[in-house]
Design a protein that fits this description.
The complex is a heterodimer of chains A (about 350) and B (about 300).
Chain A: E1 2-6, H1 7-21, E2 25-29, H2 45-49, E3 54-55, H3 61-73, E4 77-82, H4 85-88, H5 92-99, H6 102-105, E5 115-120, H7 135-139, E6 145-147, H8 152-164, E7 169-174, E8 181-185, E9 197-200, E10 205-209, H9 212-226, E11 231-235, E12 238-240, H10 244-254, E13 257-264, H11 269-281, E14 290-294, H12 303-306, H13 313-323
Helix pairs in contact in A: 1-8, 3-5, 9-13, 10-11
Chain B: H1 2-9, H2 26-34, E1 41-44, H3 49-54, H4 59-66, E2 90-93, H5 101-113, E3 120-125, H6 132-143, E4 148-154, E5 157-158, E6 161-162, H7 173-178, E7 183-188, H8 192-207, E8 213-218, H9 239-246, H10 250-256, H11 264-283
Parallel strand pairs in B: 1-2, 1-3, 3-4, 4-8, 7-8
Antiparallel strand pairs in B: 5-6
The chains are: A alpha/beta (about 350), B alpha/beta (about 300).
Bound molecules: thiamine diphosphate (TPP) and magnesium ion.
Magnesium ion (MG) binds near residues 125, 126, 127, 155 and 158 of chain B.
């Protein structure tokens, strides 16, 4: 049976069911059992599964990442939770040198079935150290799977798959997705960790969205439709491995590619996608692929500066229409009470 | 009073950045900064407003920063979690817990290497003591005999996580630091006078070249971890505990001793200074994304 759950609730259900199904699953992270429960995604889990399996940790992300690796290499399935990607950087050595390479450097004698959940911040002045979106950093490392589910449905299915996977999976969750609801089955189900999904079909241009930017691409596709242009929207979902075949086959149909990353353009995931499409579908391209994303500087804190930092639907529509040789002027969507640094009007930070 | 004003104005939604208020923890900031000279440096983390002000940072530029204005202490780039006032010797505050500690040690290294008599004070919380980098920094400071005071404000919580789930109960934080061979002391962090005595004592020995000191101060945060509200209703700490600490209010402690009179005229003067700073912030322009400089790199090497 399906019901409407938000992103946080969907992840909580995935964790809850996984904890019930497999005694080797443990969930740990700063604030996991606290009254806020990591934006709702871990609420009630300690009460249901006990403090031995669902636990807070000392402010020691680096060590605990190694601890989780040690657990995983000896048969457990730990899920680590961090309220910001930025905090996980203190554990980057463990993630990159140890977790990612463990299976390889010990010649396949051990596997590392662990999940690292991290939240990507945005808005309300999160600023330079609380709103980075570092998927490209993780995606650079062989040995990691990197996922960014966009919908609550995918979040649940991919979280269950990530926990069952024998590989280390890095899951980046956009803060603004947490309050968004979706139809989510009650049952246990798996969404593949390595497949992009066409979320809207179209014929004139392919828009590839990453995480929250998929929603902005969908809004842009609506605007384009009103102008008589048909955009196909692909939700990337998996950052490593990249589902290049899904993107290439879409571009073979539309001949145009615009990628909207939730991250820096320079050295980013979008460059890898463009490279793959140019390598595999060069002759299908009508125009050069284009990319949108974060500019080449850290996130500023003041809303006056941060509002300008993120691609918006009308800007995406504008860029897409220019690639189609058209000049329309698309208006910013009516946001009502919601300012540009809020996912919804009730959100007043602070975190 | 500054933090109260911020808390009161925050719901107007004009300060659009996370704020970690220091209400309840003022005595540590004031007592520790009291013995610092203007050439000395202070460094802090996410909860830094009191440290910034106690070190002499500009109130106007603090509020302008919270309001996201171009006149703020980082021109709107940093917000509450990234403060600096170099003219006052407040080097930096950054919010990745523990990460500003080695920077403070580096500033102390630089002071020693360059023959200055400057010393550096770094503020950390009890949670920060669980990070590896703080221990690596303590070790470095001891090995190099650096002029640095580590001041740990132990307010019993890291966000909503109590001590029991983070650290063993049979040793203190000062004991933990002492393992590095650093001189330690501990005291009542809600008594500004006691703090000042402990800090002055530390500064005397640091200035005499006797190396770094670690000071543990017990205190308590009144409001929620991040944001303007009280949060005793959400169940992570007891009202009894809160009331106990509230009865030990740093300002009341001084008032009871007659050190601080809370005369209406004094309070009024502070209130009007705060009012002016808020006005200044509100009247200041926002930074303009078209013209603002994003100082990422120097583009050339000469
Ligand atoms: C490396 C890192 N992990 C997690 C966080 C999130 N965080 C911000 S403040 C804080 C608690 C810090 O506790 P403590 O050092 O005791 O300072 P207090 O807030 O009590 O003043 C946490 C976990 C962070 N900023 N950096
Ligand atoms: Mg604390």
């Amino acid at each position: 049976m399906n019901r409407s759950l938000n992103y946080g609730e969907a992840i909580r259900e995935a964790l809850d069911q996984s904890l019930s199904d497999d005694p080797d699953v443990v969930v740990m992270g700063l604030g996991v059992p606290d009254p806020k429960g990591v934006f709702g995604s871990t609420l009630g889990l300690q009460e249901r599964h006990g403090p031995e399996r669902v636990m807070d940790i000392p402010l020691s992300e680096n060590a605990v990442t190694g601890v989780a690796l040690g657990c995983a290499a000896t048969g457990m399935r730990p899920v680590l939770v961090h309220q910001r990607v930025d905090f996980t950087l203190t554990a980057f050595e463990q993630v990159v040198n140890q977790v990612a390479k463990w299976r390889f450097m010990f010649n396949d004698q051990m596997s590392v079935p662990m999940v690292i959940r991290m939240v990507v911040g945005r808005g309300w002045g999160q600023g330079p150290q609380h709103s980075q979106s570092l998927q490209a950093l993780f995606a650079h490392i062989p040995g990691l799977r990197v996922i960014m589910p966009t919908t609550a449905h995918d979040a649940k299915g991919m979280m269950i798959a990530a926990i069952r996977s024998d590989d280390p999976v890095v899951c980046l969750e956009h803060r603004w997705l947490y309050s968004i609801e979706d139809e989510v089955p009650e049952s246990r189900y798996v969404v593949p960790l390595d497949e992009a999904r066409i979320v809207r079909s179209g014929t004139d241009i392919t828009l590839v969205g990453v995480s929250y930017m998929t929603l902005e691409c969908l809004a842009a596709a609506d605007m384009l439709a009103e102008a008589g242009l048909s955009a196909e929207v692909v939700d990337l979902r998996s950052i490593r491995p990249l589902d290049t075949s899904a993107i290439v086959s879409s571009v073979e149909r539309t001949s145009r590619l615009l990628i909207v990353d939730n991250g820096h353009v320079v050295g980013g995931v979008s460059a890898e996608i463009v490279a793959a499409v140019v390598e595999q579908a060069f002759s299908h391209l009508e125009v050069a692929p284009e990319r949108m994303g974060f500019p080449d500087y850290p996130t500023p804190t003041s809303p006056a500066l941060a509002d300008d930092y993120y691609p918006l639907p009308h800007q995406i529509a504008m860029r897409a229409s220019e690639m189609l040789g058209k000049r329309f002027s698309f208006q910013p969507i009516d946001r009502g009470e919601r300012r540009l640094d809020q996912p919804h009007p009730a959100y007043q930070g602070p975190f | 009073m500054v933090e109260e004003a911020i808390a009161n104005l925050y719901p107007e939604q004009e300060m659009r950045c996370p704020v970690h208020l220091s209400i309840g923890q003022e005595a540590a900031a004031v007592g520790v900064c009291d013995g610092l000279r203007s050439g000395d440096l202070a460094v802090s983390g996410h909860r830094s407003h009191a440290h910034y002000l106690a070190k002499g940072g500009s109130l106007k530029r603090l509020l302008a920063e919270l309001y996201g204005r171009s006149t703020g202490c980082t021109g709107g780039l940093g917000g509450s979690m990234h403060l600096t006032d170099l003219s006052a010797g407040f080097l930096a505050a950054t919010p990745i817990v523990g990460s500003s500690v080695p920077v403070a040690v580096g500033a102390a290294f630089s002071a020693k290497a360059r023959g200055s008599d400057r010393l550096v004070t770094i503020f950390v919380g009890d949670g920060a003591m669980e990070t590896g980098v703080v221990h690596e920094s303590l070790n470095f400071a001891v090995v190099h005999n650096l002029p640095v005071l580590f001041c740990c404000e132990n307010n019993l919580y890291s966000v909503y996580s109590p001590m029991e789930v983070r650290q063993p109960g049979h040793r203190t934080i000062a004991d933990l630091a002492a393992g590095h061979g650093i001189r330690t002391s501990a005291g009542d962090g809600n008594d500004a006078e006691e703090v000042a005595v402990l800090a002055d004592d530390a500064y005397r020995s640091i200035r005499a070249g006797e190396g770094p000191v670690f000071l543990e101060l017990s205190t308590y945060r009144w409001r929620e971890h991040c944001g303007p509200n009280y949060d005793n209703d959400i169940g992570y700490r007891s009202l009894d505990e809160f009331d106990l600490w509230r009865a030990n209010d740093p300002i009341e402690v001084l008032a009871a001793r007659g050190v601080w009179s809370q005369r209406a005229s004094d309070t009024e003067e502070i209130a009007s200074e705060i009012h002016l700073a808020v006005e200044f912030a509100r009247e200041s322009p926002f930074p303009d994304p078209e013209t603002v400089r994003y100082p990422v790199l120097h583009r050339s090497v000469s």
